[in-house]
């Protein structure tokens, strides 16, 4: 089936794969968000409509189809999985439908105390230590700019940051 990453313990199904496997299941909600919420697994939708769930691909098949799995990827050898990293764009899609703009997600990260504005740039705070990774920004196929600014970085955040932002949204009454 593929889609399972043994390094992180997360499975990613594209939107077409989700559509292909999702079935109505007696006794379970038709809405996939409700069905996933009942599992107590960590999960989110990415900006391209893909589904990420912290389980193996056999378990995700069972959730989507309601049928027992006859296949499952091998479990990770080390229980200390690498974290699942999310871009600001994916966090926007995971927080609201329609997706929040990246600028709104950055504002939420500032409100959560994970970023601060310094000289016109967002800079991670001490509280954000260990919750993000940075890498040099690359040109994106959908960008209207052919090359990123010199010195620009892409910052990706661990899944736990998404959980914090969801909790803040739920507390504010603006949940998905």
How are the secondary structure elements laid out?
Blueprint (H helix, E strand, L loop, with lengths): L3 E2 L4 E4 L1 H7 L10 H6 L5 E3 L5 E3 L3 H9 L19 E2 L1 H8 L6 H10 L3 E4 L2 E4 L7 E5 L16 E6 H14 L4
Antiparallel strand pairs: 1-2, 2-4, 3-4, 5-9, 6-7, 8-9
Helix pairs in contact: 4-5
Give keywords.
about 20% strand; globular; 6 helices; 2 domains; alpha+beta; four-stranded antiparallel β-sheet
Provide a descriptive summary of the structure in words.
The chain is of the alpha+beta class and 176 residues long. The protein has 2 domains: 4-65, no CATH class; 86-172, no CATH class. 31% of the residues lie in helices and 19% in strands. The chain has 6 helices and 9 strands. It has helices at residues 15-21, 32-37, 57-65, 88-95, 102-111, 159-172, and strands spanning 4-5, 10-13, 43-45, 51-53, 85-86, 115-118, 121-124, 132-136, 153-158. Strands 1-2-4-3 form a 4-stranded antiparallel beta sheet. Strands 5-9-8 form a 3-stranded antiparallel beta sheet. β6 and β7 (121-124) form a beta hairpin. α4 packs across α5 (102-111). It is globular and about 55 Å long. The two termini are 29 Å apart. The relative contact order is 0.14.
Strand order of the largest sheet: 1-2-4-3
Number of domains: 2
Report the uncertain regions.
none
Helix content: 25-40%
Q: Could you give the order of the helices and strands?
A: EEHHEEHEHHEEEEH
Radius of gyration: 18 Å
